[in-house]
Amino acid sequence: MSAPQPPQATADVPTLLVKIFGKDRPGITAGLFDTLAAFSVDVVDLEQVVTRGRIVLCALVTEPAAGLEGELRSTVHSWADSLKLQAEIISGVGDNRPRGEGRSHVTVLGHPLTAESTAAIAARITATGGNIDRIFRLAKYPVTAVEFAVSGTPTESLRTALAPEAAALGVDVAVVSAGLHRRAQRLVVMDVDSTLIQDEVIELFAAHAGCEEQVAEVTNAAMRGELDFEQSLHARVALLEGLDVSVVEKVRAEVRLTPGARTLVRTLKRLGYQVGVVSGGFTQVTDDLMERLGLDFAHANTLEIVDGKLTGKVTGDIVDRAGKARLLRRFAAEAGVPLAQTVAIGDGANDLDMLNAAGLGVAFNAKPVVREAAHTAVNFPFLDTVLYLLGVTREEVEAADARDA
Ligand SMILES: [Mg+2]
């Protein structure tokens, strides 16, 4: 037997593209290749999709021995006719052209995903010089998610071109570079308030202290840029002075996880990811979340408690905007994951450094300023949609859940 030839060996070889279309049923692939086997052809390429019960099966095979092509054609057609399938056979040369340099995955999330948005995204990909090589659906629930495999243009240019288009269309688009690293073990680090959970923990404490309005005033002043994060944290925590420690338990019970949070963490853990949280909130809550969700890392500020009462102070270093990025780096080092293979998720301005330091920064239902500065944005209130940005399909998530049920 001769050694296998390198891929270019098929470049100039005559090939036949056999396309089968029709109602899907078991045995079509076996039937087609049974038919082709009689002509001793080799398989060069093979792709199949089923959409709403209709199969499209494309087989690229080498040309049969001289004089047999006519017979191959008529045999395939009569086999297809017998199953009420349509067959098309096109003569040609070689295989696909090699995919261009610069390969990316473009994930588009829509609810609904309109034809108009799909047209605009595809047109923009083409305008950047990119070619769409493959498309497939990742999920139909809770949003419609499709992934385009694109080549021929740098990931960064694609990202820059698609971000404004996505914002204008009201769909979410994530662009990540293709390659083995996408499947390498990663680390996901999340913000807590309004990201992993629906609440702002300081507001839950403030409600028990009867100082919600004052806390909101400080928050607004910080948003107007009159206070930095650290000043606003101290000012708000000071309002909690004298609160009984029993409130901590109450607040833990009040915390509402974001829809999809459990699914996201559970699925990431199954995939071998490490998952952490960093919060400008409090360890009194993040430690509990870490235990409930089985997180690998958690870091936050700690409310000082003396003699069963909150003192209105926090202890230790403050987790602020720069601190969150530092913690991402620390967690990555501890997890043994290169920074380029980390994912950060957050909603606030103090998450921006962390989002930009990560390999993929996801602005989650974030304010416009955060959304525009991040690599990608998810604007649907389901945390598990982040899985689709990583190429995980809904079907895989559900199959894993069913298996472990
Ligand atoms: Mg937040």
From TrEMBL:
<keyword id="KW-0718">Serine biosynthesis</keyword>
<dbReference type="InterPro" id="IPR004469">
    <property type="entry name" value="PSP"/>
</dbReference>
<dbReference type="InterPro" id="IPR023214">
    <property type="entry name" value="HAD_sf"/>
</dbReference>
<feature type="domain" description="ACT">
    <location>
        <begin position="17"/>
        <end position="97"/>
    </location>
</feature>
<dbReference type="InterPro" id="IPR045865">
    <property type="entry name" value="ACT-like_dom_sf"/>
</dbReference>
<keyword id="KW-0479">Metal-binding</keyword>
<keyword id="KW-0028">Amino-acid biosynthesis</keyword>
<dbReference type="GO" id="GO:0000287">
    <property type="term" value="F:magnesium ion binding"/>
</dbReference>
<comment type="pathway">
    <text>Amino-acid biosynthesis; L-serine biosynthesis; L-serine from 3-phospho-D-glycerate: step 3/3.</text>
</comment>
<comment type="similarity">
    <text>Belongs to the HAD-like hydrolase superfamily. SerB family.</text>
</comment>
<dbReference type="Pfam" id="PF12710">
    <property type="entry name" value="HAD"/>
</dbReference>
<dbReference type="Pfam" id="PF21086">
    <property type="entry name" value="ACT_PSP_2"/>
</dbReference>
<dbReference type="GO" id="GO:0006564">
    <property type="term" value="P:L-serine biosynthetic process"/>
</dbReference>
<dbReference type="InterPro" id="IPR050582">
    <property type="entry name" value="HAD-like_SerB"/>
</dbReference>
<protein>
    <recommendedName>
        <fullName>Phosphoserine phosphatase</fullName>
        <ecNumber>3.1.3.3</ecNumber>
    </recommendedName>
</protein>
<feature type="active site" description="Proton donor">
    <location>
        <position position="193"/>
    </location>
</feature>
<dbReference type="InterPro" id="IPR036412">
    <property type="entry name" value="HAD-like_sf"/>
</dbReference>
<feature type="active site" description="Nucleophile">
    <location>
        <position position="191"/>
    </location>
</feature>
<dbReference type="GO" id="GO:0036424">
    <property type="term" value="F:L-phosphoserine phosphatase activity"/>
</dbReference>
<keyword id="KW-0460">Magnesium</keyword>
<dbReference type="InterPro" id="IPR049148">
    <property type="entry name" value="PSP_ACT"/>
</dbReference>
<dbReference type="GO" id="GO:0005737">
    <property type="term" value="C:cytoplasm"/>
</dbReference>
<dbReference type="Pfam" id="PF13740">
    <property type="entry name" value="ACT_6"/>
</dbReference>
<keyword id="KW-0378">Hydrolase</keyword>
<dbReference type="InterPro" id="IPR002912">
    <property type="entry name" value="ACT_dom"/>
</dbReference>
